[in-house]
Amino acid sequence: MELNKRTSKILIVDDNPVNIDFLVELLKEYDARTVIDGRSALAAVKEEKPDVILLDIVMPGMDGFEVCKKLKESPETEDIPVIFLSASHETESIVKAFEVGGVDYISKPYKTQEVLIRIQTHLKLKSALHMLENRSLYDELTGVNSRKKFFIDSEQWMRESKIGIPFQLCILTIDNFAKINDE
Asked: Each residue of 19-64: pLDDT tens digit?
């Protein structure tokens, strides 16, 4: 699976200027943005959803664990891969990072190739998951919504109808459709 680095959005969340400078330089081929605290990270994600978040654990105010928990609680951001960054090599910290929803953990000091390959791996995984989800919702040949997508959409239509937004449903059948499909 080919990865387009220029269009891959990475959000770097770290309060240490040295770490930020290192990561920005390392990720210069990507569309990387930086913020210096947890609240700014949550605001940045609402503004533009990144493909991957590199999240420091120890920051003033809201720590990385709390930021990740908040991201995973929201349907709009729960699917963003969060890679934790930390100087801690303690098992307790690593385990907690995964428990709150992180997908990976990179210890400082950074090893350049390790950071790059972990980011690339999670970008590829996210792309593959998106492709699989798309295939489950739409017919690959025609692009028509799948049965699953119909039921997902119909739940939304029913919710909207309860608040006064009208909708109409028309169901059509095509005789001998299997024959058409086969040909």
From this structure: 999 999 999 999 999 999 999 999 999 999 999 999 999 999 999 9
Q: Look up residue 177 and give its two tokens.
A: 């459709």
Do residues 126 and 133 make contact, with C-beta atoms less than 8 angstroms apart?
no
Q: Are strands 9-13 and 104-107 parallel, antiparallel or unpaired?
A: unpaired
pTM over 0.90: no
What is the residue-averaged pLDDT of the chain? 91
Helix (H) or strand (E) holding 120: helix 112-137
Nearest to 115 by CA among 91, 83, 76: 83
Scan for tokens 């950071």, then name that residue.
Answer: 115
Q: Using H for helix, E for strand and C for coil, what is the string for the chain?
A: CCCCHHHCEEEEECCCHHHHHHHHHHCCCCEEEEECCHHHHHHHHHHCCCCEEEEECCCCCCCHHHHHHHHHHCCCCCCCCEEEEECCCCHHHHHHHHHCCCCEEEECCCCHHHHHHHHHHHHHHHHHHHHHHHHHHECCCCCCECHHHHHHHHHHHHHHHHCCCCCCCCCCCCCCHHHHHHC
pLDDT digits (tens, 9 = 90+) for 66-102: 999 999 999 999 999 999 999 999 999 999 999 999 9
Which residue is associated with the tokens 């910290």? 93
